[in-house]
Amino acid sequence: MTSENQINRKVYEGTQRKLVLAFDVGTTFSGISYSILEPGQEPTIRGVTRFPAQDNTHGASKIPTIMYYDKAGNVCAAGAEATRDGIEVEAEDNGWVKAEWFKLHLRNKDLAASTPAASIHPLPPKKRAIDLLADFLSYLYTCAAQYIQETHLNGLAIWNSVKDEINYVLSHPNGWTWREQREMRKAAFMAGLIPHKAHPRLSFVTEGEASLHFCIQAGKLASHALESDRDPGFVIVDAGGGTIDISAYKQTTDTEARVFEEIAPAQCIFQGSVYVNVYAKKVLLGLLEGSKFADDIDHIVNVFERSSKHRFKDDKDPQYIKFGGTRDNDASRKIRFGQLKLDGSDVAALFQPAIDAIVEAVLLQKEAATHKISHVLFVGGFAANTWLFNSVSRILTEKGTSIDVVRPEEHIAKAVADGSMSFFLDHFVRTRVSKLAYGIAIRVPYNPSDPEHILRAQKIYYSEVTERRHLYGIFATILSKNVQVPEAQVYRRKFRRDSLSDLDIKKKLKYTILGYKGLDANPTWIDLARDDYPQLCTIEAELICIPIMTRHTFSGKQYYVIDFEILLFFGLTELNAQIAWKNSEVSDICYRILNLELCWELF
């Protein structure tokens, strides 16, 4: 069922027509959903279902995330155009370079370390991942513009009325942080979607949360199975091309609105469907090494991707990869009449890393969740694979988890694009779980009786201001890790600054917000694990009308201090930071919004 039949949305209260575009740039396939908001009308979610070079394919909601570049670095073909008949010949004749799986190059070093030891397609010469993303976003924009103009009554007039003020929603894996969001913002700016990198018309949503919204608006969470438990918790498994994103939620007791809260830290694992291809290529290289078919390995893997991989459902049935003609035979390589035979058990082994990773992730969600988990909902293109779905269901049952595994009946491959639009329109999730602790590095007075201080005695420094010895490098937590964070909640902590000069004390404040990703529930000394404290953003503010207080040292010397607070807001899936202080002249709080371009952070 479509979203229009499942969700009764409020009418759009704006006075002018607005367009919202949701771009799902996947590792292997990408899609576009959109909504034209008309004043006084209930919004609906629509999908772009016709793309260049795919005009004869009815209802095609996704295109390959592939581009070809010429020697000058220009895009020559993209999407379905990059997979049309004869494109390989044309590319070879003209020296074009193929670009695919480029999304994986954007991942941070922590996720890169967890990526299976397998080859990821290299980037074209002199191109960065952000360049490719910008080019592909520009292409998706062109596809959306063409589709809307061609399919809507008065489409050209509609497009001209909204094209200059479009809102965009970009989805990304659960494990991506502010670093990847920053790169995505740059790419959106480079693509011409937004006029500057901090523009508010661009928002982000994790693929896990987008998938939740898809399940809600598709009616899956209203099924009798979920309603059989009182207020059940459930896990969303978004199995895509590059990543598998796992998130856990439950519906709240809010009787006026349908509201959900995250109940465990979201996970992201690099065991998407492309890695089945990677493992298959390794097996086939071993089988065909030294044969005349070794040079055909990429073609054979592509045939496997399009056929055997998708229809595989039983490890007892052999699979045949039909890659050649009737004269292609080699009994020692299991090749007859142009068909390479793979035993069902060998094909099953290609899926096993993904199966094991999903089961482990679901069990971790079950253990970490603040609520009982009753169901797993499978979405994403990889979720359509029968062997994957049945194997995860069987293993969870064998482990006695009492967790039912279900999947929407239709359009699971477009879950993220439609879910991203629903995220913008419906806003079902109001509470999320912090994946990091957030804070700043501060100093503390040296305590000669504290063993930790004694260990760092060589780092003592003397303050001319306070005439006391200090140690620097304590992590002052503002928000702890694995905390359920209501989006309206403000997290704040008081800090103090001192100086011998009343002029210097009012110089610009500048602090670096740190994250903590380690396992310690109460992190303290940063030098114990420096790599666990990434710098998230820098905040700074000019001090206007801030009250200055005087203090005196033990020797009677006067110095100056100011008190202020650092505030963290986790409104949606991004962080905003502020500095605040009491203004004694107007008996009010002064807030300074700081460096918004740098202060967006994903949970």
In short:
The protein is an alpha+beta fold and 603 residues long. 27% of the residues lie in helices and 29% in strands.
Word description of this protein:
The protein has 603 residues and is of the alpha+beta class. The chain folds into three domains: 3-208, 2-Layer Sandwich (Nucleotidyltransferase, domain 5), CATH 3.30.420; 219-407, Nucleotidyltransferase, domain 5 (2-Layer Sandwich); 437-598, Sandwich (Substrate Binding Domain Of DNAk, Chain A, domain 1). It has 15 helices and 29 strands. A seven-stranded mixed β-sheet has the order 17-16-10-11-12-18-22, with helices on both faces. Strands 1, 2, 3, 4, 8 and 9 form a six-stranded mixed β-sheet that branches. The chain has a five-stranded antiparallel β-sheet with strand order 20-21-19-24-25, with no helix packed on it. Helix 13 links the parallel strand 16 and strand 17. Helix 7 (207-217) crosses helix 14 (415-426) and helix 9 (273-288) runs antiparallel to helix 12. The model is unreliable at 1-5 and 585-603 (pLDDT under 50).
**Can you list the strand order of the major beta sheet?**
17-16-10-11-12-18-22
CATH topology of the largest domain: Nucleotidyltransferase, domain 5
Strand content: 25-35%
Quickly give the structural class.
Answer: alpha+beta
Q: At the first level of CATH, what is the class of the largest domain? A: Alpha Beta
The radius of gyration is: 27 Å
What is the total number of structural domains?
3
**CATH architectural category of the largest domain:** 2-Layer Sandwich
Shape: globular
Which parts are unreliable, with pLDDT below 50 for 5 consecutive residues or more? Answer: 1-5, 585-603
Largest sheet: 7 strands, mixed
How far apart, in Å, are the first and last alpha carbons? 31 Å
**Helical stretch tally:** 15
InterPro entries: ATPase_NBD (IPR043129)
